[in-house]
Design a protein that fits this description.
The complex is a heterodimer of chains A (115) and B (114).
Chain A: E1 5-7, E2 10-13, E3 19-24, E4 31-37, E5 44-50, E6 53-57, E7 65-68, E8 75-79, E9 88-95, E10 105-106, E11 110-114
Chain B: E1 4-5, E2 10-14, E3 19-25, E4 30-38, E5 45-51, E6 56-59, E7 62-67, E8 72-77, E9 86-94, E10 102-104, E11 108-113
Parallel strand pairs in B: 2-11
Antiparallel strand pairs in B: 1-3, 3-8, 4-5, 4-9, 6-7, 7-8, 9-10, 9-11
Classes of the chains: A mainly beta (115), B mainly beta (114).
Chain lengths: 115, 114
């Protein structure tokens, strides 16, 4: 068990470019979450998957954002036509469904800077 | 609409003393509360949690208190150690299904001084 892994750790891109981030959850965890954190704020929920099904999306997730978890294991988050306002830390978390005291385990995040 | 509020952006305490971090919430549907600790350039790590059916949970130096009528919870760290210096986030989960989506506060930067 190596924890939640996110790649890349840092991404610098120019406005208008597309970017894709990857998250590998803890292997036995069936739930996977994406959060976004900006400076001075707490993590904000974007979306979550149970196995391969995307069950909820926040209104923060505009049409330019898409997330997938094709085989119920790793997930990708793509941002199309990036804007400067997309600059943030993108955090992935995973959990194992079924425990009433279910806890989220977070990765180290991908820091996105849009120039 | 900030449903989880941490009104103190920072807190400074001396090593060995008690640290008290506060959190208020507005959503009465929250049934489970967690504290996460975050170091720079790392993701949040789980610290301690409490269910809404309890008013206290203790784990070593960390104790979380929940006052449902006041919609308030607090994290006590005693004794505080320099390694506790980090940003602490309060988080809450809404009951009734919907996965385990958490709503976070804005965090409190704790600094434990020698």
């Amino acid at each position: 068990d190596t924890g939640v892994s996110q790649n890349p750790r840092h991404k610098i891109t120019k406005r208008g470019q597309n970017v894709t981030f990857r998250c590998d959850p803890i292997s036995e965890h069936n739930r996977l979450y994406w959060y976004r954190q900006t400076l001075g704020q707490g993590p904000e929920f974007l979306t979550y998957f149970q196995n391969e099904a995307q069950l909820e999306k926040s209104r923060l997730l505009s049409d330019r954002f898409s997330a997938e978890r094709p085989k119920g294991s790793f997930s990708t988050l793509e941002i199309q036509r990036t804007e400067q306002g997309d600059s943030a830390m993108y955090l992935c978390a995973s959990s194992l469904q079924g425990n009433i005291n279910e806890k989220l385990f977070f990765g180290s995040g991908t820091q996105l800077s849009v120039l | 609409d900030q449903q989880v509020k941490q009104n103190s952006p920072s807190l400074s305490v001396q090593e060995g003393r008690i640290s008290i971090l506060n959190c208020d919430y507005t959503n009465s549907m929250f049934d489970y509360f967690l504290w996460y600790k975050k170091y720079p350039a790392e993701g949040p790590t789980f610290l301690i949690s409490i269910s809404s059916i309890k008013d206290k949970n203790e784990d070593g130096r960390f104790t979380v208190f929940l006052n449902k009528s006041a919609k308030h919870l607090s994290l006590h760290i005693v004794p505080s150690q320099p390694g506790d210096s980090a940003v602490y986030f309060c988080a809450a989960r809404e009951g009734g299904g919907g996965g385990n989506k958490l709503t976070f506060g804005t965090g409190t930067q704790l600094k434990v001084e020698l």
